[in-house]
Predict the 3D structure of the following.
Amino acid sequence: MSENYSLSVNGKSLEVRDSWVGESLLYVLRQRLGLPGTKGACEQGECGSCTVLIDGNAVCSCLVMAATCTDSNITTVEGLSDGDALTDVQQAFVEAGGVQCGFCTPGLIVAVHNLLESNPSPSGLEVKEALSGNICRCTGYGRIFDAVQLVVSRRTGRTS
Amino acid sequence: MSITTTRSRDVLGTSALRPDGIPKVKGSFEFSSDANDDSMAWGATLRSPYPSARIRSIDVSGALRIAGVHAVITAKDVPGKATYGLISQDQPVFASDVVRYMGEPVAAVAADHPETARRALSAIIVDYEVMKPLTDPEDAISGSHPPIHPDGNIFRHQRIIRGDQTIVGDVVVEDTYEIGMQDQAFLGLEAALARPLSGRGVELIVATQWLHEDRKQIADCLGLAEDDVFLTLGGVGGAFGAREDISLQVHCCLLALAIGRPVKMQYGREESFFGHVHRHPAKIWMRHHASKTGKILRIEARMVFDGGAYTSTSPAVLINGITHTQGPYTCDNATVDGYAVRTNNPPCGAMRGFGVVQACFAHESQMDKLAEACGLSPVEIRLRNAMKTGDPLITGQLVESVAPVARCITETDALPMPAPLSAPDALDLPGGSGLTTQSHHVVRGVGWGVSIKNLMYSEGFDDYSTARCTLVNGKVRLKFATSEVGQGFVTLAPQIARTILGVDVVEIEPMDTSVGSAGSTSASRQTWMSGGAVDGACRVVRERLFEHVGRVHGIDPIRLSISGTDVVDELAGFRISVADATEGIELTHTYEHHHRKTEDLDENGQGNCHVAFAFVAHRAVVDVDVELGLVKVVQIATAQDVGQVLNPLSVLGQIEGGIAQGLGLAIMEEIVIDNGIVKNPSFTDYLLPTALDAPDVVAVTIEEPEPQAPLGAKGVGEPPCISVTPAIVAAIRDATKRQLNRVPVRPYDICL
């Protein structure tokens, strides 16, 4: 338990001190760096609750050892917006009813940002494919699909 | 259904948004797993690898020698009651002499790091004498296996005998149906933080469905008075019944008290499969007697629920199952025999639908058989037998609830069908992106399911709820212990206060045990029960407000009412804002809402055992790859009896979410058990519906306000997940012409 290294998270360099090198990025974010927004629900990369961006790619942080990320830029749900403001994706999830218990929500928010970055106007099927790695047990996904379409229509200036 | 997003004030009937929505999308909402303390240690649980074994000895010395390990506790370290349980306290905090299911807790450790705790668990040596497990419920019933618990192998046996026991119908259909063990699979894993209180007692932050019941059981096991155990609701990441029983609560408190420091416990997914109860697997035989015209004359049934190793809520699940044998159909004569039994399988208890899911799969499969035998459509057979308000159940209880069964069916039937499968995108076929399905192997099917579900607790239980309303300076504070598990009571409660008291700002105080019990967030009961408590508290405060305004302004309070955000005397043209009227004063009231009394069943299963009922119909359209056995649920149409819609967006969320869970049971979700061994305790092997599995949901609500309900609204949580399962299976039968008497339907059930 004596490893020291630094990680670039949400644009800041953060020190990880006296850690065990086997700790996952999920654990380090939550327990060492004070960023509990990223959630863990399966530890196998199946549920997507722990989704973060590593150099712009959506990754399950439970599957990544934190100590391997020293040369990467990490973005968590806490780093998507400035201060109290919500991103358009976050706003749409609230308005469309895409949140119930909310445990899957941070991972989904990151995944939707990632999807719309690479595909600004996805079809319904493309949305389903892109989000199929993020399990939600409460909503049945309907309101989440609505939230994504709300963002797309607002970004493209179309009315929903 | 359409969702109203424009609103002036977030009163009842609007799609008010969740007050916790913003913190949840930002990642700042504090779930129980996010509770930390600078001085905390980490707790972990050692569990039995065997479903049945005698414990010869436990050697913890190796664990204690590991640097960073602060405590190891076993059964001998439980100062109070050694067992706990919701109905019968037959489940040990730690196994001492025998283990009765795979995953039963044997010891717990507290260490400075989760990894140290895991190493400590592996250093504990338990000498087991492995025994032959009891895994077949029929062996528990027949007595062919010796008792595996001092309380015996039968949790409960109950019959229902009603009417003429000799009637034989012109048409008789019968079969045996099986329901697999489903997991609630909430996303937010079990987690808690326990803090020893200075002097005496302990504080626990925990995700649970029922704070006060947890407190009672925890205090008993700790040997403390209830007042020495203080519970606060940690953010709950879903529940669906799995948080009704104790999991890590007692262990976490014991460890914290043992080391005199805060202890955090958090299950991983595998441990979660062993740490909470599941939906009962069941085997149900049913025989329906009917006239040639399809009128049900008599139903015979035998139901066996496998409750696993400990009681949990098995007796109540059984009663729900057998009392819903007839489904939402009239039937004057019945013979039902039901068992809930103990085995060395994982303990089963509450899950959304609570016994009715199992009964519904059987009775709806039977209705389709009856339709075929009588030459009627699935819709016609159901309409001919549809129950109405005032009809008697097979328990003798009259259905006093609004019972729009026929409307549920006809309004579902009127919903548009999906476009036919012509020139589909390959990704839209059952095999999806695997591109395994050839479109000429795809057959479409349509199926129906209709259900009745009891609301609230039954058999004489008074599951009341408590709420306090405080009105001060035009703002309301609400206090209750109602568990918000995602269903949206934190949205609804302020809507009630705004409507009754004419305020806009409503603050919800922390949910904890410093106020009276709210009962459990289960049985579709919180809108009715805690909604009723908030409604009652607000109404009393409104009376006090009118008395105050009347006194100050010389008006008879009976002339006053709330209009928007004002107190008004319409006739006199008097108007004052609630904010101005309450400046400098505080009006507060605590209210308990009780539902009407219910009764136990007698030996023939007769009695007014349920409070109220809700109804729903589902129509499923599926595409089946008949060669590969793959199923894609294309569309679910549903008309649900809701009493009154209080928040359209929340109702739709419950409908869509429940449908997804019922879909899971229909075609993918099952805890696979082999001789007591759980084979798939992970999200890799226990399959859950993903975004790609989500069908199009076409939903309408049927609003006929329920006179018994404080807000006219029935609970909407459970019905969506109940009859959707048989509807999907019926649709698969329609496509494949196979019997399919078991859920989940597996690929090899279809194509081999």
